[in-house]
Amino acid sequence: MTIQTATLPTKQINQGNFLDTPQLASGITRFWLIRHALVEQNARMSLYGTLDVPLCPDSLIAQRPMYEALAARLPKKAQWLVSPLSRTRKTAEAIQDAGYGPSALTVEPALIEQNLGEWQGMPHGELPQHLHLAAHPFWSVAATECPPKGESMIDVCARVGRGLDRLAETYAGQDVVAVSHGGAIRAALAHALRIHAETALHFSIQNISLTILERLEEGWRVVTVNELPGI
Hints:
Structural class: alpha/beta
Distance between the termini: 61 Å
Oligomer: single chain
Protein name: Alpha-ribazole-5'-phosphate phosphatase
Helix content: 25-40%
CATH superfamily: Phosphoglycerate mutase-like
Number of helices: 7
Organism: Acetobacter cibinongensis
Strand content: 15-25%
Strand order of the largest sheet: 3-2-4-1-5-6
Shape: globular
Number of strands: 6
GO cellular component, one term: cytoplasm
CATH architecture: 3-Layer(aba) Sandwich
InterPro entries: His_Pase_superF_clade-1 (IPR013078), His_PPase_superfam (IPR029033), PGM_Phosphatase (IPR050275)
GO molecular function: phosphatase activity
């Protein structure tokens, strides 16, 4: 008697997309998203949004070991992107100076922080009287709140999502290090996971933390979120 065995169609065998080892495969379109370093204390007292505020010089010195760990963690043959704001460029330069080595920095407007419009520069304590909706528990405003002459987090998610899809085509099969902002990285997660902006705001994205996204044929994959270098 002959026993026949069923053979699964090749399309159903999908071993290649499992992350089974610490080493990430090469040839994957991969974004290494880094939130900029801590801004200086006076700037933190207000809503700074897209204002071009400086970094805290003391934290750059105190957190040098974290920059060194991040420099060692990042892929050496990567494209580097920064937002139009100097705090992302200065953070990228600090990482490169900490052992990564020099690499050209390309400005990508799609990765800028949420524009808070007329509320930018306002002390945090004055904001509640201007809100039409209750603030998000982990963000200054609700995801659907649109500041006068600014943009809502819904808008940010749309902007960042379009930008990521475009960049994934431009840098197909390459590693991209992008130094960006807390709101923009949350928007990137919303796009990758297909979740509402209000939900994405529950992610913690700390200064100089690393979030890794991959663009595969099947869609976006989240590899890590808010990874703190050296910890």
